[in-house]
Amino acid sequence: xxxxxxxxxxxxxxxxxxxxxxxxxxxxxxxxxxxxxxxxxxxxxxxxxxxxxxxxxxxxxxxxxxxxxxxxxxxxxxxxxxxxxxxxxxxxxxxxxxxxxxxxxxxxxxxxxxxxxxxxxxxxxxxxxxxxxxxxxxxxxxxxxxxxxxxxxxxxxxxxxxxxxxxxxxxxxxxxxxxxxxxxxxxxxxxxxxxxxxxxxxxxxxxxxxxxxxxxxxxxxxxxxxxxxxxxxxxxxxxxxxxxxxxxxxxxxxxxxxxxxxxxxxxxxxxxxxxxxxxxxxxxxxxxxxxxxxxxxxxxxxxxxxxxxxxxxxxxxxxxxxxxxxxxxxxxxxxxxxxxxxxxxxxxxxxxxxxxxxxxxxxxxxxxxxxxxxxxxxxxxxxxxxxxxxxxxxxxxxxxxxxxxxxxxxxxxxxxxxxxx
Length: 421
Description:
Helices cover 39% and strands 15% of the residues. It has helices at residues 16-19, 24-39, 57-68, 81-95, 110-121, 136-144, 162-168, 191-204, 265-278, 284-293, 297-320, 345-356, 399-414, and strands at 44-45, 104-107, 127-131, 148-152, 173-179, 207-211, 240-245, 258-261, 333-337, 358-359, 361-362, 368-372, 378-383, 390-394.
């Protein structure tokens, strides 16, 4: 007879992580790769945010020189001091954000930085406010941190309406997530909206996490960093924690390099503990590559111009076909509504891949709304009903790929009744 376990809770049901839904992005990524493997025919990949432009050669050279010179030892858990000093200067000069090296952390990609921020600010039974249409990795990070997601509806053009945010909040709300420019919608929040959201959060004792991975890809206006609106607020009273990325601005996706600026010393301490446990230290050669990348501002501007050119050259045809209400104001993606075709998002994406060899992502994967039990495990998960006809396409791919993929997409749509011809 087995002995009774001294840790009975370990045997009581599945782990929290095992109940969290997998990202739809990764499923489509696998499906597209499998189709290529079996058929031998290349898939036109509009499903993934992998840029066609590449990191400048100076970045690779800096990485190689760091390795060759033996700069491969540990750095502090916060990151290379010289890089952090440069990032503090960058945030002040370009973003209007006041921070200090003691509150600035280099991370292996902004994704890991966001996950660590969630853990650093999480409280037992605390709720976090997310838009109904959100990046699925945000939801996974929230659940793994033990936060309970509460969703607010988006307004016209997928913009955040502060009144809707307030209406969704409860007495247990502790965190508000802001993502501008947004993935997947490309929506950009202006200064007035951000100010209202920060004032609302401060009055209610909330923390704010600002995901600004696409900061350099605002097309019709200027990017506003959320934390810039706290410049005159004493550090101890600041509430906006910000995450940034090298992956988008400088196409350094595989380098895995980002950074986080925490609002105050209390959160910096908590973030440091999380990184000590999860990370120990960043890759040292990658940090030297990042240091070189910061000297290449002209490349950032060129990369922005290439994505904007893609948007303006190709997406008006999608809008004219009645599948896109407005051109995205920022970011790398566009959310299409394929309801006129009579197909659901899954049917459209599957049919497009099988008949036209074009991969897109169903929008339902960006609108998952889980129900949790008392321990934070997911009991059920369903997409928001209005997302059932949405798909996301990437506009950061090569111009020829985007033109070809969109041409096939529109021809596929026109074969269905109700689509503009």
